[in-house]
Amino acid sequence: MQLVRGLHNLKSAHHGCVATIGNFDGVHLGHQSVFRHLMEKGVELNLPTTVVTFEPQPREFFQAATAPARLTRLREKLQAIHDVGIERVVVLEFNKRLAAMQAEHFVEELLVDGLGARFLSVGDDFRFGSRRQGDFSLLQRMGTQHGFEVENMNTYKLDADRVSSTRIRELLTEGNFETANQCLGRTYRICGRVAHGDERGRTIGFPTMNVNLHRRVSPLRGVYAVRVDGLGEEALPGVANIGIRPTVEGDTRYLLEVHLFDFDRSVYGAHVSVEFVQKLRDEKKFENFDELRQQILRDADAAREIHGIAN
User: What CATH number has the domain bearing residue 114?
Assistant: First the structure.
């Protein structure tokens, strides 16, 4: 899959394609359905498939403090799009220039001059351009003018419920991984590189891996039984805390800390994938570290039981 970063990097070789535009957070079954339809259209027109997405996501630019929790960081999103079979992804930096661009100019610069799109699939509620003035009707009018077809994405339903990034965030927050995974078409994971932490866990007998989140906030918060890929041939069982560690005064960083059972290797710098198996409890502030340690022991026992590991 080819990755193009920014409008300025679109070349003549990128001209002529079928395309879709969106955030595609989570790359769930609904998104995958759109991509597969796009691939069918590409075969029909003998044109490559192009997905256009934004980084940061527009609401993260306009409303950083209240933007929805990320399901996928950019790297995870790109991998999921690649796995479907899309040929090219264009990542547009959502900045002041893009936010201020007139809707007609956006269509001309991206879809007409940059991509030479012959077919475009977007949601009928898709809004773009300065003050969100661009909409589906504008795309249709400009498509007629410039020779590209515009099609509305079909709503994708699972058991009569619409599959959406919002719904998946709610399911993950509730700890309903079974339904969330069904909507995603895969198990929910967070990927990142193991970083150096404050090693506080070692002082209470529970060394942890600190995994870089590369997102301001996650839909997950609390303690979970997890499996970790990337450190051997098989996934390793463990227990994880994701949140702000309320017992540690003054520390408001959003962290993912993973303790692996019966594991004692230095893995700083390793890229791992953390699969969330079951939620154990919400995050809680303890009076002191001894209380925290006792709760961690109980959490570890509960996670071992879920994994089928003897204490």
Answer: 3.40.50.620
Residue 196 has a pLDDT of 78
High-pLDDT (> 90) share of the chain, %: 75
How distant is the alpha carbon of residue 161 from its chain centre? 21
For residue 66, give the amino acid letter: T
Structure tokens, 267? 């893995």
What six digits make up the tokens of 208? Answer: 């942890």
Q: Do 35 and 130 reside in the same domain of the chain?
A: yes
Residue 198, in any domain of the structure: yes
Q: What is the CATH number of the domain that holds 285?
A: 2.40.30.30
Average pLDDT, the chain: 91
* Residue 166 lies inside a defined structural domain of this protein: no
Q: How confident is the model at residue 141 (pLDDT cuts 50, 70, 90)?
A: very high
Structural domains in the chain (count)? 2
Non-local (6+) Cβ contacts of 113 within 8 A are none
pLDDT score of 264: 84
Please give the pLDDT value at position 45.
97
- Look at residue 177 and tell me if it is in a domain: no
* Residue at 159 is within a domain: no
Q: Are residues 137 and 256 in the same domain?
A: no
Q: Which domain holds residue 48?
A: 2-154
For residues 120 and 248, membership in a common domain is answered with no
Distances (CA, A) of 122 to 33, 108, 263, 310: 12, 16, 47, 51
The rounded distance, in Å, linking the Cα atoms of 33 and 66 is: 29
Name the CA radius of gyration of the chain, rounded: 22
How many Cα atoms are found within 13 Å in the side-chain-facing hemisphere of 275?
14
CB 85 within 8 A of CB 14: no
SS3 labels along 223-269: EEEEEEECCCCCCEEEEEEEECCCCCCCCCCCEEEEEECCCCCCCCC
Q: What span, in angstroms and rounded, lies between the C-alpha atoms of 131 and 193?
A: 38
Q: Residue 206 is inside which H or E element, if any?
A: none
